[in-house]
Design brief:
Elements: E1 5-14, H1 17-22, H2 25-30, E2 37-46, E3 49-53, H3 58-75, E4 80-83, H4 86-101, E5 113-115, H5 116-120, H6 132-138, H7 151-157, H8 160-183
Parallel strand pairs: 1-4, 4-5
Antiparallel strand pairs: 1-2, 2-3
Length: about 190
């Protein structure tokens, strides 16, 4: 059977940008949670094509996202969901915000989720270093000259085009990293 998967990535921004600007870097990181931050863009990549969902209304974005997820799964219910740190950040954020906005999700099994960070680190998260960009550079994938910490300043400037471009590039990087993990059989590492 053909390898069927889609990639999910989100970009978030603190709700209170004035407060964010007054904090040091460590305190700023603490605001990146579903209580103190909001989703500003959701990216999906399926069959080599990116879809970026952006809207000023977080609820509208979530409804569109879960609808896309459901449509992909209708085609093949065994389609895996891929991301980098997806089980520690993206999915908890999406699910929590769906609860807040009373948005019906598309239920999933964690065994359908492929977290590339977990796989690459053989499930030893927290004991090893490595961001998506760092792994991309190590294996020769071109990245943009920015990372997640640059998203809040872009929100402050209102540069949503740059945020969208960044998210598109991250989806492509994740896809290439997924392919490398597949080729090297790293995807076959399981926790149990």
């Amino acid at each position: 059977m053909e390898d069927d998967y889609f990639i999910v990535d989100i970009e978030t921004c603190p709700i209170d940008l004035e407060k964010y600007q007054q904090l040091n870097e460590e305190e700023q990181k603490k605001l990146m949670n579903p209580i103190d931050s909001k989703i500003i863009a959701i990216g999906l990549r399926y069959n080599g094509k990116n879809k970026i969902i952006m809207d000023e209304n977080e609820k509208v974005m979530l409804e569109k996202f879960w609808s896309e997820w459901e449509n992909i799964k209708k085609g093949n219910p065994y389609t895996n969901v891929v991301g980098f740190s997806i089980t520690n950040f993206d999915l908890p954020f999406l699910v929590s915000k769906s609860l807040v906005h009373n948005v019906v999700i598309c239920p999933f099994l964690l065994k359908e989720i492929v977290d590339l960070r977990d796989k690459i680190n053989a499930y030893r998260f927290g004991r090893t270093r490595g961001t998506l960009k760092e792994y991309a550079k190590l294996i020769g994938i071109k990245t943009m000259d920015m990372d997640g910490k640059d998203i809040a300043p872009l929100c402050i400037k209102g540069d949503f085009i740059k945020i969208s471009e960044y998210l598109e590039k991250d989806l492509e990087i994740t896809d290439k990293l997924y392919q490398r993990a597949k080729e090297t059989k790293i995807l076959e590492i399981d926790k149990w």
